[in-house]
Specification:
The structure is a single chain. With 267 residues, the protein is of the alpha+beta class. The chain folds into three domains: 36 residues; 93 residues, Protein of unknown function (DUF541), domain 1 (Translation Initiation Factor IF3, 2-Layer Sandwich); 124 residues, Alpha-Beta Plaits (2-Layer Sandwich), CATH 3.30.70. It is 33% helix and 37% strand. The longest helix is centred in the N-terminal third of the chain and has 34 residues.
Length: 267
């Protein structure tokens, strides 16, 4: 019997030694992992997240308006003639109000047919009873026509177009059927403005971060990340916000607000 000097079988001694090596190696690996994690945490840069904003007053440089002219008649030709006469009246009114002829657009004419309805008697229900009941059905016989045309204005003259939108309905007294929309005030240089607003909002975020770090006796590092939020364009004096952004078209004077979320390294 091949026993070791300590009375244990040789195979058992070898196994214990091998297991000891594995346990020692496992301890070394665990210590290495812990040391690496500790160093990684220590070396990971500290960051500070702040939000900056910028606000700027703007005035609209384009105004648009549209009105819908309508004519109804049982005869299609008469309906067209009426619509043509009304459109000419509205167009003349707009030009007389000081709007340039080149700023006026007339759409194509839209035609709606009205079909004659008839009452059918003796309609049976699902059970086949009630022969005296009746129902109204729509036939394929045309009973009249409604023609519509949209007149639109797109101009840089901020004074004339709003007056047209308010006063054009006075033509109703002359038999013109017209629905007037409210004018829409637009700012056409928004793309260029967004770039400068992004810069201003980033400057504000940097100033906020510097103030926080200075008060904590730290040092502000480089900018790590910057994300721009949606623009909020409100009437002057209004501070409403929306996750999808606001683009006001009801007011001539507006305020645009940009927000930037920034992250800086701190030391």
């Amino acid at each position: 019997m091949n026993d070791s000097g300590n009375g244990l079988p040789g195979k058992l001694v070898v196994t214990l030694k091998t297991g000891g090596y594995f346990f020692a190696l496992a301890n070394v690996v665990c210590v290495a992992i812990l040391a690496w994690a500790y160093v990684a945490v220590k070396m990971e840069p500290k960051t500070l997240a702040v939000t900056g904003s910028a606000r700027k007053a703007i005035v609209s440089d384009l105004v648009t308006w549209s009105g819908t002219i309508t004519a109804t008649d049982q005869d299609l030709v008469k309906a067209y003639d009426t619509l043509k006469h009304e459109s000419d009246q509205v167009r003349s009114f707009v030009i007389a109000s000081g709007v340039a002829e080149t700023d006026i657009t007339l759409s194509s004419i839209s035609t709606e047919r009205h079909y004659k309805k008839e009452v059918v008697k003796g309609v049976k229900d699902a059970s086949g009873e009630s022969p005296d009941s009746q129902a109204t059905i729509t036939t394929d016989k045309v009973n009249g026509y409604t023609l519509t045309q949209v007149i639109s204005i797109s101009a840089t003259n901020m004074d004339k177009v709003p007056v047209v939108s308010r006063n054009v309905t006075s033509l109703i007294k002359e038999g013109v059927q017209i629905d007037s929309e409210a004018p829409r005030y637009l700012y056409t240089k928004l793309s260029e403005l967004k770039i400068s607003m992004l810069g201003e909002a980033t400057k504000d975020a940097t100033a906020r971060a510097e103030q926080i770090v200075c008060n904590a006796n730290g040092h502000l590092g480089k900018l790590v990340e910057a994300r721009m939020g949606v623009m909020q364009i409100n009437p002057k004096g209004v501070t409403a916000t929306s996750g999808e952004g606001i683009n006001d078209t009801s007011s001539y004077e507006k305020e645009i607000t940009a927000v930037v979320s920034a992250r800086f390294e701190v030391r």
